[in-house]
Amino acid sequence: MLKTQLYNTNEAGTDEAGRGCLAGPVTAAAIILPANFKNEILNDSKLLTEKKRLLLKPILETKAITYGVAHIQPKEIDEINILNASILAMHKAIDQLQHAPEFIIVDGNRFKPYKKIPHECIIKGDQKYMSIAAASVLAKTYRDFYMEELHKEYPMYNWKKNKGYPTKEHREAIRKYGITKYHRKSFKQLPEQLSLKL
Predict the structure, then answer these.
(1) Is 173 helix (H, G, I), strand (E, B) or coil?
(2) Alpha carbon distance 175, 57 (integer Å)
(3) Cα–Cα distance between 183 and 193 in angstroms, integer?
């Protein structure tokens, strides 16, 4: 069972989705849940089916005290690297909260201070705390919708299914059609990219 809060404060959880993708944005969400919030299904988005994530999305949006979602695009990911882009996405998601949190809990082990608000990084936090799990669900669902829209422009990559992750099918499409403006040029798109034919 997930814990509601790390500390008994006005606490925001934040997490990102899409870090390991070859195409599309990295997306983060931040959310403040009521102290008495409970949900039997809620967990790390990676452990939930798409059906359960889509069921949770409107519940979280309705029950949240406030939430925010932000995308950082491939061009910026290439300029500042994926770690910095992930942290920037989390900062931009926190920017959108209607009430500033007193404390921020972050999934993972890397974060940069946001304004002067104290924070704590928690490994596998999305499997321990409701607000981080909720942020992971929102980040994942919003990013999936975004990739489904991009799929309409470039259906040959099948982003509606692979969401930009490096599946065999996605890599084969890159080999056949090349990369698009939505691909991350700083990422190794094909396994043999770094090998030289002598």
Answers:
(1) helix
(2) 35
(3) 15
Torsion of CA 35, 95, 163, 111, to 10 degrees: -80
Q: Band of the pLDDT at 197, cuts 50, 70, 90?
A: very low
Q: Please state, in angstroms and rounded to a whole number, the distance separating the CA atoms of residues 156 and 4.
A: 42
Full DSSP string of 28-92 = EEEEE--TT---SS---GGGS-HHHHHHHHHHHHHH-SEEEEEEE-HHHHHHH-HHHHHHHHHHH
Q: Quote the tokens at residue 14.
A: 């934040």
**Quick one: which H or E segment has residue 119?**
strand 119-122
Mean pLDDT for the chain overall: 94
Tell me, yes or no, if the pTM score tops 0.90: yes
Q: What angle do CA 188, 49, 87 make, to 5 degrees?
A: 45
Cα first-last separation, the chain: 56
Residue 134 pLDDT class (50, 70, 90 cuts): very high
pLDDT in tens, 62-88: 999 999 999 999 999 999 999 999 999
How far apart are alpha carbons 22 and 24 in whole angstroms?
Answer: 7
Tell me the helix, strand and coil percentages in the chain, rounded to 5.
45, 20, 40
